[in-house]
Every structure is written in structure tokens, then in C-alpha cells.
Amino acid sequence: MSADTKIAELLTELHQLIKHTQEERSRSEHNLLNIHKTHERMQTENKTSPYYRNKLRGLYTTAKADAEAECGILRRALDKIAEIKSLLEERRIAAKMAGVYSDSDPPRKTMRRGVLMTLLQQSAMTLPLWIGKPGESPPPLCGATPASGDYVAKQGDKVAARVKAVDGDEQWILAEVVSYSHAANKYEVDDIDEEGKERHTLSRRRIIPLPQWKANPETDPEALFSKDQLVLALYPQTTCFYRALIHAPPHRPQDDYSVLFEDTSYADGYSPPLNVAQRYVVACKENKKK
């Protein structure tokens, strides 16, 4: 089965799941309305009789079952979306390796900077939010949660990579993994903004995988960097990571970090607060301030 056929199939299944979700929600709303009306009657009569207690117990049991059923459908829908994104990414990588590009993913040598910045912003916005089950801890690469020690980034993954600049200085750049050699313990990566001129071969210690899920501040605040923590963050409208302090972590799932970049042109050594998406904030491997 071709990737296009599989994607079309998954989209059809996703559409059915969305319809099923709405049906479940409409059915559960009727039960929630009954709960509300029962509470109103109890307040009017100013008493809690065994009849009302039993009725509410049954209504709440049904509401819990309805919520779990809807949650199950939504999780299946999220799995379909993840499958579709994975197939699209596989197709993009295959096209890149073959030297064939679609209109939505032009070769980097013809990509205007404004287009690249838009694509990076879209990548940050569409990073999936981790939604765990009750009591489930966020996985590695969710928000600030680091990758496991033996983790190897896949082809096509975006990473922070430490490379030597033309002037000899080292800098952290946004890069895409081309391959990994288990024998040499080294990555080959392309600078996302280098117009395909050079490929870097780097050891694992020079690579930091980017988050694969956003952490939800409302349910998993421990999976976020905390205030005053030292990080590497992608400077707005660039493809380079710089050292920064967390000024404020996200308060809602859709929020960005507020960070203070190290900047000697300011009296206190830090820039005013700037917003950076969870996608582009990683732990800083260097603790000493230069």
C-alpha cells in the first residue's frame, strides 16, 4: 500500500472518530443536564433524601463511564494523527534523499528566510501535547524531560547541534539528523539554515534532541523548566540556540516560555523577556557563564 493511500485511509478513520466523539459528547450532555437539574431540585426542597442520593450516584457513575468512553475515542484519534504525521515525515525524508521536493517543502537553497521562519513556527505550534492517563508520568523528551541515556535521534529529527562557525567559535544551531553511526557513535546532521552547503559529523555529546511533546503546565508542571533555570533557547527569528534563563514557564498548554537571553549589551547581562516555544528550549550542557 502506498503512503498516499494509507494517509487517505487514516484520514477517513480519523473523520469517523471525530463524528463518534461528537455523538458521545451529545449523549453525555443529556446526563450532565440531569445531574444539574437534580441538584437544583435538592436545593429547592432543601433536603438530601435517600432517593436523591441513589439517583445522583447512578447519574455520576454514568457520567464517569461516558467521559472514559469519550477519552478513549479521543486517544484513538490522536494515535491516527500521529500515524499521519509520521507517514508525511517519512515521505518528506524520502523525497529529500531522492532530490525531489513538493511545493510545501522546497529545497533549502531556494527557501526564503521568511518561509523557513514560518515553517519553524508551524513545527512548534503542531508539536503534540502529552496527555497521559491518571498517575502516568511524562515520557522522555516531553517538555524538559531529557532523553534516555541510550536514545538515538532518528533520521529527520530536529536537534540542537554544537558546531564550529566560520570564525572558529562554536555555536549551537538547529539541525536535522541525516544519519547515525553506531560504530563511530557519531551523527551526520544538516544545518537547517545552511542552504545545504555543508554537512556536519558530530559526536553524541554535541547533539541535544528537541522535545517530541509539549508538557501540560496544568497536569505535568514538573516536566517544564522552572524559573531561573539555565537553558539553551532558539533566539526568535534565527536558527541558533543561545544561553538563557527561564523568566517564566508556560501557564497554559498553548503558552510559550518567557526567557532572558544572556546579552552583555544590557546592564544586568540579560535581554528583556522574549517568548520561545517549548519545542525550542532544551537543557544547557554548560553550567558556567562565559
Automatic annotation (TrEMBL):
SGF29 C-terminal domain sequence ranges: 149-290
Protein's name in the database: SAGA-associated factor 29
Any matching Pfam family: SGF29_Tudor
Compartments, record wording: Nucleus
An annotated GO cellular component: ATAC complex
Keywords recorded for this protein, A-Z: Coiled coil, Nucleus, Transcription, Transcription regulation
Native organism taxonomy: Eukaryota, Metazoa, Chordata, Craniata, Vertebrata
Matches recorded under InterPro entries: SGF29, SGF29_tudor-like_dom, Tudor_SGF29_rpt1, Tudor_SGF29_rpt2
GO biological process, one term: regulation of cell division
Origin superkingdom: Eukaryota
